[in-house]
Write a structure and sequence with these properties.
Length: about 240
């Protein structure tokens, strides 16, 4: 268990990072520079850095934030992943964003989900200020670029525009097939490309759903000692329904 998970166990929710959310399983076209920047956070930074990632659902924002935390878990730095949609939806108090000064990197996902709430906005403002004053780094995500966010607190709107801003593009079906191949490789699986194409044709195309589907097929494959083929996928998934 990494430092992020240990820290979050003291929080209202126990957020567990996805093990295979890594830079190696992220499919990118124009984001190579961003990956290098995020990977560079594993090196002790002399000054705080802020990265703002934005894009539609399915563009990989959550993956990259979790990948950053997973990467940092292998270094001497401490990071935390804060899924704002989950935290606010569970009724967590904005105080969950306080007392994070012992961490080196703070990753906040879907911040736009809490911008309509004054208390959350003040908590975000304090956190960003404390991070910069304490020499900490931030990785923030939202569905819109900072200048398009509806923020009622002007100082917070200004803070969200600090640092570098990157737009993530949605994945094409071809990209999703490549991503499934990378996830299969990370799990030590051999999944033919035609199987990935079959999954994309027959099931919801959200990558998170498809990866969860891959995990289920992996479990059945191990239990039955069978290779993952299209007939195998059909038999397993038909039994589940």
């Amino acid at each position: 268990m990494n430092d992020s998970s240990l820290f979050l166990q003291q929080r209202p929710l126990d957020i567990v990072l996805r093990q295979h959310a890594t830079f190696d399983t992220f499919v990118c076209r124009k984001e190579n520079g961003l990956l290098q920047q995020l990977d560079g956070l594993a090196q002790a930074a002399e000054e705080p850095r802020q990265y703002f990632l934005w894009g539609h659902s399915g563009s990989g924002k959550s993956h990259l934030l979790q990948a950053t935390c997973n990467r940092l878990a292998a270094s001497d730095l401490k990071a935390v992943y804060l899924p704002m949609k989950v935290l606010s939806g569970s009724g967590s108090d904005p105080g969950v964003l306080s007392d994070l000064q012992q961490l080196d990197v703070i990753c906040m996902d879907d911040v736009d989900c809490v911008l309509s709430d004054r208390d959350w906005e003040h908590a975000l403002f304090r956190l960003i200020n404390e991070a910069w004053l304490g020499g900490k780094s931030l990785v923030i995500s939202a569905t819109s670029k900072p200048s398009d966010l509806e923020v009622s607190l002007p100082d917070l709107a200004s803070r969200l525009r600090w640092g570098m801003v990157y737009r993530l593009q949605p994945l094409s079906d071809e990209d999703k097939g490549t991503a499934l191949q990378l996830h299969a490789k990370a799990r030590g699986l051999s999944v033919p490309r035609e199987v990935c194409a079959y999954l994309l044709r027959r099931y919801p195309r959200g990558l998170v759903y498809l990866v969860e589907l891959l995990d289920r097929l992996d479990q059945h494959s191990l239990a039955m000692q069978r290779k993952i083929t299209i007939p195998f996928v059909k038999s397993v998934l038909e039994q589940e329904h």
